[in-house]
Each structure stands twice: as C-alpha cells, then as structure tokens.
Amino acid sequence: MPEADVDRRYDYPQEYLSDILRSVKTIAMVGASADKTKFSYGVLRVLSETGYDMAPVNPNPKVTEIRGIPVYRSLQDIDRPVDMVEVFRPKEELYGIAEQAIEIGAKVLWGQIGVYDDRAAKLAEEAGLKVVMDRCPKIELFRPFWKPRLDLAI
Fold first, then answer.
1. Domains in the chain, start-ordered, CATH in brackets?
2. Taking the mean position of all CA atoms in its chain, how far away is CA 117?
3. The pLDDT value given to residue 2
4. Residue of 51, 71, 67 lying closest to 141 (CA atoms)
5. What is the pTM of this model?
C-alpha cells in the first residue's frame, strides 16, 4: 500500500484523539528506552512532564528505571490499572501487544508513528478498546485543538 494511503487510513478526527488524551491517566509505554537519543525517551519525558502516570515497559533486566520512573518487564507486571498502551515496537509485534492490552483491561491501544496493523486494530476494537495507529501522542498534545494543562507547575 502506498504511504499516502496509509496516512489517510489512519486519519483520526481531532476530537477522537483529544478525548483520548484528556481521559487517560496511566500510560504503559511498550518499547520505552533509557537511551536519551531514542524517540521513545523524548515521548516518555514529555508525557510524564505533562502529568501522565507513565509505566515504561522494557524486558531488558539492566534497565530498571527511566528518568526515575520504575521500568516493568511486561504489561502483566504493571501494578496498577493501565488506561492506554502506547507501542514503540515493530508493527509486526502489535497484534500480540493488542492481545496483552486486552488481557490487562486497557482502554486504548496506541501505535506510535510507523506502528500499525489492521488485524490488531480490529481485535482491540472488538474488545472495546479505542485504537490509534501511526500517530504520536506527544505530537498530538501540541496540535491546535489541544488545550495545554496550564495548571501544572513549571
């Protein structure tokens, strides 16, 4: 499928994205990295600083925290309810992660830019999850429709 078709297929209404970002509180980031040069590190930083309760997921036993936030080995290891599962893994892994997101009772499955799978989306939607693919929540936070959380301390 040409890239332009992918972009149109995953073109979500602004209100849909805005509602998700306003309603979620705890975000599990599958594929979070402690490497400051990785995009997932920057997204984790911004989401955390914006006020989201982040739960980074990285199976590497040497990575115990990222930016002072404890790291979990899997979604099943997270010790609190998860509203959104954000995926920074290859799109080929999205279906399995969708199954896990359903298993832990997440409300949203969000595939980062380049992470999309129609089968995973269908599975998650049929289980009642909202789905966003091929988008970045950090970018969506700063789109014109988003009202920043001005009550946060700097």
1. 3-141 (3.40.50.720)
2. 15
3. 45
4. 51
5. 0.87
